[in-house]
Amino acid sequence: MLRGVRSGSLVMMTGLVACVSLATDLHGGDHDIVVGDRAVVQRCVLDGNARSIAVGMPGGFCYSFDPVRCRVASVWFGGFLDFRPEATGRGGQQVPILGSPRMVGTAELPLRIAAPDREPESIRFDGYRRERETGIPTFLYRVDGMPIEQRVVSFDVDQVTIELQLPGEERSPVYYLTDPEAVERVELSDRLRWTAAGVIEIPASERWAQIRLQLPPSTETFVRPEPSTNGRLLYALHCMSCHTLDGKKRIGPSFADLWKGSRTVVRGQQVAEVTATEEYIRESILQPQATIVQGYENANRMVDIRKTLNEKQVDALVKFLMDLKP
Questions:
Q1: Residue 97 carries which DSSP code?
Q2: 256 and 201 within one domain
């Protein structure tokens, strides 16, 4: 029995923190909320849940977040929301999504602290902050007092990545409950492990975790809209989950290290020293397994970005990384 579950207030603030607000990008008579180069966050009624928070990402990936249980309720690929029931009625109406809902196997109460079989006694939703350049939200909440920061992204159609930051000082193992049978494949970041069927352990030593879910193919036809050629946006959507800009280690090497001199890489069976050039950066994006930074040989393989980005978008991403050079 879950006790003390409540939703915290969303507070309007400047800078990176923002509250849920009504979308204003309503086009034509169909009342669709259209997602452009920035993520759109919209509080609305979905699946009978009046507290749902819908997120539309550039490129056609969308999901709903349940702030009561602090979980991803569903995802879809395509358009975002048809806001007609809200725009033409008295409010509180069910809003249709512009895609086919997909389940990701998330348990009703997915996060457990210290013990996987102990349901949380309290869940407190503290709102969310948004990245300034892209609008991508990070949801903030506490489970049994432990602060959690959650971000949800997608690198490809039928793929969903859940990222968890654990910034608190008090450390306990965290367990994430999911149904592996609901998806085709689950990939975990370093040091995460399965402790039982459907139970993923995040050790107390870890402050960041990534759970990548490959969904079964959908019977719905979907053509992903072409994202913008904004290099910063492309980095946030396709690179930031694995490569930081501040030197912190994740699944892949930080881009901050590009300009610190030469780096040791493995090319085939040979070890070599390379320095960052436009050609090296472009090859690393398009052929990530050709040259691997030493120490990352066993990391999760990078997805083939050529399936998602066209030539102009790759050029924009390369330029963004080149512009980071001091």
A1: B
A2: no
For the record, the structure tokens of 132 come out as 């300034």
For residue 124, give the nearest of 8, 45, 41, 44 by alpha carbon: 8
**Could you tell me which of 306, 99, 70 has the C-alpha nearest to residue 220?**
99
Assigned domain for 219 exists: no
**Looking at beta carbons, which pairs linking 10-15 to residues 24 or more positions away fall under 8 Å?**
10/127, 10/128, 11/127, 15/132
* DSSP 8-state secondary structure symbol assigned to residue 167: -
The verdict on residue 222 lying in a domain is no
Is 1 among the domain residues? Answer: no
DSSP state at residue 155: S
Whether 201 and 302 map to the same domain: the answer is no
Which pLDDT score, from 0 to 100, does residue 134 have? 93
DSSP labels for 271-323?
Answer: EEEE---HHHHHHHHH-TTTSEETT-TTSPPPP-GGGT--HHHHHHHHHHHHT
CA 4, distance to chain mean position in Å, is 28
pLDDT above 70 (res 322):
yes
Beta bridge partners of 27: 32
N- to C-terminal Cα distance for the chain? 55
286 burial level (CB within 10 Å; 0-12, 13-18, 19+): middle
The string of pLDDT tens digits covering residues 148-175 is 999 999 988 899 999 999 998 878 999 9
Q: Which residues of 250-273 are buried (b: 16+ CB within 10 A; e: fewer)?
A: bbbbbbeebeeeebebeeeeeeee
Same domain, yes or no: 22 and 132: yes
Please tell me whether residues 250 and 203 are part of one structural domain.
Answer: no
Q: Which domain holds residue 109?
A: 6-214
Q: Which amino acid is at 51?
A: R
